[in-house]
Amino acid sequence: MESASELVEFPLLVTPIDTHYRACTIPYRFPSDNPRKPTPIELSWIDLFVKSIPSFKERAASDTSVPDAANKAEKFAQRYADILEDFKKDPESHGGPPDCILLCRLRELILRELGFRDIFKNVKDEENANAITLFEDVVRLNDAIEDESMRLENLVRGVFAGNIFDLGSAQLAEVFSKDGMSFLASYQNLVPRPWVIDDLDTFKMKWGKKSWKKVIIFVDNSGADIILGILPFTRELLRHGSQVVLAANDLPSINDVTYSELIEIISKLKDEEGRLVGVSTSNLLIANSGNDLPVIDLTRVSQELAYLASDADLVILEGMGRGIETNLYAQFKCNSLKIGMVKHPQVAEFLGGRLYDCVFKYNEAS
Question: CATH classification of 40-113, choosing from 2.60.40.10, 1.20.1700.10, 3.50.50.60, 3.50.30.10?
Answer without folding.
Answer: 1.20.1700.10
